[in-house]
Each structure stands twice: as C-alpha cells, then as structure tokens.
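Hi P.,

Sorry for the delay on this. The queue was packed all week, but I finally got your sequence through. Input first:
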Amino acid sequence: MLLGCKLYILVLFIHFMNTKFKRHQKVKLLFVPLEKDIEPYQEEMPQIEKGMIGEVNVILPNGQYHILIRDKTGEKLAYVVMDEESLEPAGPKPKSDHIDIDDVDEVLTDIHHKNKS
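Then the structure:
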C-alpha cells in the first residue's frame, strides 16, 4: 500500500507541475548563459551564444531547464541551465507524456484489491 501512495503522490506532482516547455522540446536561448551554468560536453569550453537552439534535457525540481546544445553538425557541445524566462520555443511541443489521473486511480484500486486477496 505504501508503494501505491508514493506512486500516487509522484503522479499528482507530475500532473500539476506547470511548465512552459516539455522534455525534448527545441528551445532558443534568449540570453548568453553564465559561465557557471555551462557544463561542457568536451574538455574545452564552447562558445554558447544568444540565439542558439537547444533541446530540453531535464526539467529541474527548482523549475529551471537543463538544455542540451549541439553544434551545426549535431555534435554535443554542452549542457546549460536556463530559467524559463531565458528561453523561447524553437519548434512544436513534443507529444504530451501526460498521465490521466483516472487511469492512476484505476491502477491503484487494482493493486489494493490484489493485496487484499
């Protein structure tokens, strides 16, 4: 039952977390990121500029975005951490990985009934 409660809380968090961008969505940098917010993929520090296109890698718990930046050939340059206000969409949103709460209730009910018997 404890596993079911944890699952339900996680799903509620994901369901109600309002973010402007979704994972794997293409975004455009509106500002040059601070040097401390750049994680180079290779050893040398790449030149990250305003207007570069990236892809949302992870939505961080503090509401910031971990963005993968690639060069023109598709090679990974760096990951940058950016605020929502520092980004704009650069393409369509990916299909939603939205979870319907009714489906979760049904699964948890099934788990509860199986544990009873």
